[in-house]
Write a structure and sequence with these properties.
By secondary structure, the protein is an all-alpha fold. Helices cover 98% and strands 0% of the residues. The chain is rod-shaped, with a radius of gyration of 35 Å. The model has no long low-confidence stretch (mean pLDDT 85).
Length: 80
């Protein structure tokens, strides 16, 4: 009976060790995925800012060209 109790105790100790090891592995995996997701989100955010700046720059250039065209049309239409 003592041998059987000892075997059960040792087996439970091993199970606890495996559970701890498995828990640590899952925790490390989740932490790694979180860091990877953070990196992906930061890169996406930077790309979005670049795209927005590009659109704003294009619109500003278009506005400048249109303003210049209107000014030239008004200047030449007044003279003639």
């Amino acid at each position: 009976m003592l041998d059987r109790t000892l075997i059960i105790f040792i087996t439970k100790k091993k199970d606890k060790g495996v559970a701890l090891l498995l828990t640590m592995f899952i925790l490390i995996a989740l932490a790694s995925m979180s860091i990877a997701m953070l990196s992906i989100i930061q890169t996406s955010s930077k790309n979005t800012v670049r795209a927005h700046r590009s659109v704003v720059t294009y619109q500003a250039a278009e506005f400048g060209i249109e303003t210049g065209r209107v000014s030239l049309v008004e200047e030449f239409s007044i003279k003639f």
